[in-house]
Amino acid sequence: MNTFQNSTNNPANCTKAHLSETQQAMLQDIRNFFLTDKCSQIIGSMNELVETILFSKDLENVTPEMRVDIANQLRTVTLISKLSESNQRN
Predict the structure, then answer these.
(1) In sequence order, what DSSP letters do the residues of the chain get, joined into one string?
(2) How far from 4 is each of 7, 14, 16, 46, 60, CA to CA, in Å?
(3) What is the rounded CA–CA span in Å between residue 32 and residue 19?
(4) What's the predicted TM-score (pTM) here?
(5) pLDDT by residue for the chain (90 residues), tens digit each?
(6) Which residues contact 39 (CB under 8 A, 6 or more apart)?
(7) Which residues, 6 or more positions from 53, have their beta carbon under 8 angstroms from its beta carbon?
């Protein structure tokens, strides 16, 4: 049974009329936050943070191969987002 399919709280059923003024203000703050930088910049920053954590000595259960694989996947996502933004400008 998939409870999400039958949920009445899914985004399709939620309109601005259903949100309180505080919730609408919080959503606007989130929108404004993400409008300050391009998608590729946000993804790049997140990738740097993840890579910093991945390559710290504190992670015992993550093998060096896993670290490299995750870092490469993050770099691929960054490249795709930059290509997408470049394509949208042209």
Answers:
(1) --TTTT-TTSGGG--GGGS-HHHHHHHHHHHHHHHSS-HHHHHHHHHHHHHHHHTSTT-SSS-HHHHHHHHHHHHHHHHHHHHHHHHHH-
(2) 5, 14, 21, 28, 35
(3) 18
(4) 0.47
(5) 444 444 455 555 556 667 888 888 888 888 887 777 777 788 878 888 888 887 777 777 778 888 888 888 888 888 888 888 788 776
(6) 81, 84, 85
(7) 59
